[in-house]
């Protein structure tokens, strides 16, 4: 089966991969692997009622990695032929070790254990008119919310990505990964001002789910319009230390950035994370349990296997406030003497893998969300974030809220603009005093950047209350 698949998709057979790995397995090599990738991406964009962009991109290539101690040799080629693969393997070996002997290998296809995204291949692409009509429905839904919506920008992108990983322990693993993403931006104008709102969603699914059952898509359209309109009415955000309530779902991006990156194995091993040397220690309120789970069906951050061929799993990072786990790829796991967790990820064949998150979220608590709001006399309710900055070494973060409201007397009142949340990741976890029962994952828009590489991820959060967080505002 592997031979026919490789021949059809990449024009190779197992012997070619055997010889490639043989060129890499020399001297005292700890690990070597070959990563093959073939992806096809279609996208179309609409602005102000007209199609302004359409593209069809095909990418194919191979990357060869050699690990020796803590050294990595990596080389890639966009020409998948036996000579180019062997030359790349030789280059990777010389970078990592500088040796000259060769080794033989007998590769075997590893059986698949699950399919988190069972999508028929003919559902990965649909005719351009079908996709354009979906965008026109989005445009109409946005404008129907309010005449102050003066412009709509919408896009839909669908990708089919096939990866093959051949490893020096004799395994070949194959995964075919679909992805769909819809993005919506609305511009509202009124009272001499313009405001934008954004929304969207998607996941590892086919296009039919969105084309024929478009209510989720139209919901994202209305959400983008609502956010833009709220911005027109918003007052300047107050500044100072106050109690902050984060809404469910997308606000989990704060958890991802301020805490999740600091739990990735490379930062832990090198001692550059604020969480280094704290395994087993209490780092959060006992109300907090945080997991990374790459096995959730159809979610944007989910994958059957990571980009090193390791099956993904559910890793408990913090349990009832205690730090109990990290996210590991093969190299850092080997150097730390632990098992890989299926979190070795790369943007493409041109990049080597590193520890990355999949779907990272906090588990639900027991409080009703409305009770959490009622418990705050004066504070901020943050529903969505536009972006932020984090220093991994000390956990300090600054996040900009794209949608936020005042809480006054236990009630959500006026929308505010210009609010930023300022704090420290390890410290903010200890300030969580209420956790809601309404865990939600984001709608499927997350993309994570690290060391110049971007990969799709998911985030999630129940409603939580954080006491004494610094809010930067623009109110005088």
Describe this structure in words.
- The protein is α+β, with helices and mostly antiparallel strands.
- It contains 11 helices and 25 strands.
- It has helices at residues 2-10, 14-24, 82-96, 128-145, 208-211, 215-233, 252-260, 265-269, 330-336, 369-374, 425-430, and strands at 31-47, 50-68, 71-77, 108-109, 149-167, 171-190, 193-203, 235-236, 240-246, 290-293, 314-319, 322-323, 344-345, 354-355, 359-362, 378-390, 396-408, 411-417, 420-424, 432-435, 440-441, 447-450, 453-456, 458-461, 464-472.
- Strands 1, 2, 3, 4, 5, 6 and 7 form a 7-stranded mixed β-sheet that branches. Strands 12-11-10-15-24-21 form a 6-stranded mixed β-sheet. Strands 9-16-17-19-25 form a 5-stranded mixed beta barrel.
- A hairpin with a 2-residue loop joins β11 (314-319) and β12.
- The longest helix has 19 residues, at 215-233.
- The termini are far apart.
